[in-house]
Amino acid sequence: MHLSRRAWLAVAGGTLLAAGAAAVVWRTGLPGVTPGAVVAGAPAGYVDHEGWMLTPADKQALAQASTAAVESP
Amino acid sequence: MQVGDSGILRGGYDCFVVGSGPAGVSLALALAEARKRVLIFESGDEHTVRSELANTVGYGHYSGAYWNAHWIRTPGGTSNVWAGWCPTPRAFDLDNPAVGVRWPVTRSELVGYWKRAAPILNHDAAYIEFEAPLIPGFRYRPVPTPPPKNFASSMATLKASPYVDIALGYSVVGLDADRSRSTVTRLEFLDHRLNTRGEFAVTPAQTVVLAAGGMGNAQLLMLPRADGSVPVGNEGGQVGKYLMEHPEFQVGGEIAIDLELDRYWPAAHKGRGVHAIVADDDTAREQGLYGCSLQCTRKTTDHPMATFLKNQTGRPFYYYSITPRAEMLPSAANHVFLTGERDAAGFHRLAARCVLDARDFLNVELTLRALGETLMRLGKGRVRVNNDRIYKQVWGGGHTMGTTRMGQSRSTSVVDADCRVHGYDNLCVAGSSVFPSGGGSANPTLTIVALALRLADVLAARK
Ligand SMILES: Cc1cc2nc3c(=O)[nH]c(=O)nc-3n(C[C@H](O)[C@H](O)[C@H](O)COP(=O)(O)OP(=O)(O)OC[C@H]3O[C@@H](n4cnc5c(N)ncnc54)[C@H](O)[C@@H]3O)c2cc1C
């Protein structure tokens, strides 16, 4: 099949955009790999808050702020 | 002059170039400047994209028809759809023994060629190395985004050159060599319009350069031979191996930082780049990291994390989403190979297996975490790591690298440091297929053009 140059480039561009938006989704197991940044035995230097790397004080302040927001009339 | 317009070839060529993408065109024009005569073969013509010849099936992380959209068979090649981004690899990206990466070409040699390649790609040579310190351990290293040069626009220049003939609508479909497999002796082509085949005898003084794209170069060096002997150029059995992409992870991270990145990009170039942060060489070495450019977009001061940090410190914070663009380590298990199906030109349909390693994902997560820990320690910001966007969604840059890699010997690579196929005097390869690694996360085309200019210098010096 010989698409015209213009038609083909339009199709290719469209496919790329659609593919980029949907992205490929797959699942994988990561056998026995330990992140190098974590020193063996020592706790990580951050706490997790929905993916954000925070200090314990940040997390506490955020929790207080959200409690205050809930409690305020 | 264009073959087919008049049907007349000037002959007496010093070089046959297969492909009219950024590699083939840059090489041909540089050779013409050195008064070498060149004939370019290009599958597509002004009216046709020969997409049926790029029909590759993908296995692994880049599946289905992924590669087809990244190998555009028309004059100008894949530059018809590229984005024009032109970063350079860092020294560390080309020489990183911890992950087995060592390019046979030094970065200092490449710098001169990048500077020559920059204007060809609408880029400013003064900015090819631009970067600035950001925070300890990390550098601001924006990705320059000049207007994408479409090499289809170079066809007129090529046709006007007294040294170049261009055969549009002609695919190279066969290569022959002498018994000792040291010289290409014949090149077979297909005229798509007439559906007829023809051939050129190639003398030892003439050079054949494959510039057919990351898939096409491998395809041409894997062409099965009627007598069942090893394909020309694949005597070491390495062709097709070490296929690589540049994995990218849309919004794989987020950052709230007290630095406004716009301030770092030089005033004369504002708006012509994407902000990016990279680990510096020491951080990367200490943490076992490799290529990963954390590209920062969609700045706002309104994000809840920016507001929170501002309330905590009294300073303004800027929120950016981060799209990491990264490197995958070369692996012989990732390869292009022939399937039993054949296309209209008689080529075996290609299959491309490309599987990222666990380390490639970890590299991205850990680069983000190292940045997050540093910012936290300095009190200058916070980072979010979007786990599922890193580990469960991956895309690529449209970069096809590594299928005819550069190296020291035939047993581990396909071409030498001059991009000459090991063992051959007159067979060379141009394009990202020669990359021994991804060159960090750097988009490949500036380096493709740089290596093409370097190859032109080698060939121009040939008597
Ligand atoms: C969507 C997209 C965005 C991209 N963005 C960027 C970017 O921002 N920055 C960057 O650096 N790179 C980018 N790239 C990659 C860039 O396009 C390629 O690196 C570049 O085009 C490769 O140049 P090339 O000359 O080696 O190969 P190609 O451009 O693929 O050209 C190969 C040519 O060879 C011809 N050919 C193949 N086989 C034969 C044969 N047997 N006989 C005759 N002719 C043949 C083809 O028709 C084609 O014209 C992008 C790619 C895509 C798909």
Report on this structure.
The complex is a heterodimer of chains A (73) and B (463). In chain A, 47% of the residues lie in helices and 11% in strands. Chain A contains two helices and three strands. In chain A, a hairpin with a 2-residue loop joins strand 2 and strand 3. Helix content of chain B is 22%, strand content 25%. In chain B, strands 7, 8, 9, 16, 17, 18, 19 and 22 form an eight-stranded antiparallel β-sheet that branches. Chain B has two domains: 265 residues, FAD/NAD(P)-binding domain, CATH 3.50.50.60; 180 residues, no CATH class. In chain B, helix 1 runs parallel beside helix 10 and helix 3 packs across helix 10. By secondary structure, chain B is α/β, with parallel strands linked by helices. The two termini of chain B are 25 Å apart. Chains A and B meet through helix 1, strand 1, strand 3 and helix 2 of A and helix 7, helix 8, strand 22 and strand 23 of B. Strand 3 of chain A pairs antiparallel with strand 22 of chain B. The structure holds flavin-adenine dinucleotide (FAD). Flavin-adenine dinucleotide binds next to helix 1, strand 3, strand 11, helix 5 and helix 10 of chain B.
Total discrete domains of chain B: 2
CATH superfamily of the largest domain in chain B: FAD/NAD(P)-binding domain
Total number of beta strands of chain A: 3
Q: What's the main sheet of chain A like?
A: 2 strands, antiparallel
Number of strands of chain B: 24
Bound molecules: flavin-adenine dinucleotide
Strand content of chain A: 5-15%
Query: Judging from the principal axes of the Cα atoms, what is the shape of chain B?
Result: elongated
Largest interface: A-B, 37 and 49 residues
The H-and-E topology of chain A, N to C, reads as HEEEH
Seen as an oligomer or otherwise, the chain set is: heterodimer
